[in-house]
Amino acid sequence: MIEDTMTKDDVTLVRESFAQLHRRRSETAAMFYGRLFEIAPEVKPLFKGDIAAQGVKLMEMLTVALAALNDPGGLTVLLRKLGRSHRGYRVQERHYHYVGEALIWTLRTSLGAGFTPEIERAWTSLYTEIANTMMAAGRAA
Ligand code: HEM
Fold first, then answer.
1. What range does the domain containing 93 cover?
2. I need a surface site. Which of 17, 20, 70, 79 has the fewest CB within 10 A?
3. pTM for the whole structure
4. 3-class DSSP state of 74
């Protein structure tokens, strides 16, 4: 559970860095998808929308992550639903790994010196927790 792996400080770090990404959301989205399609070109055909729609999707993904922080435990139902819908989009388990990589890379590149090891650890815990819940639901679907 998220509340078992993240401290209060971790939660604050994630919230603050999200706010920075959100302020620069279109360039952040371009960076994220550019990186994702570079490390995992196989996932490109899964995305049907244009880059603007994908930018909205990235922020939706991060908003789900933030919501999970605000309501730990309460979001399991939503994450399970997302896990099932992602299986429907033909998302494979290894893709979760690539998305996690692209996300951390985007944070590091966008935040620069502000991307501390603590922030990296906090985002990694959160992403891992969410991805694990979604993958488990996808497997059971
Ligand atoms: C933390 C993990 C993730 C979260 C929270 C997340 C969240 C979302 C949300 C909220 C949507 C909007 C549509 C819906 O509600 O189903 C969506 C769509 C989608 N996601 Fe994810 N996602 C995650 C990981 C991934 C991964 C690993 C992939 C694989 C590359 C992926 C590929 C897609 C695709 C293809 C769509 C359909 C929209 C489109 O065609 O552009 N997602 N995701």
1. 2-140
2. 70
3. 0.92
4. coil
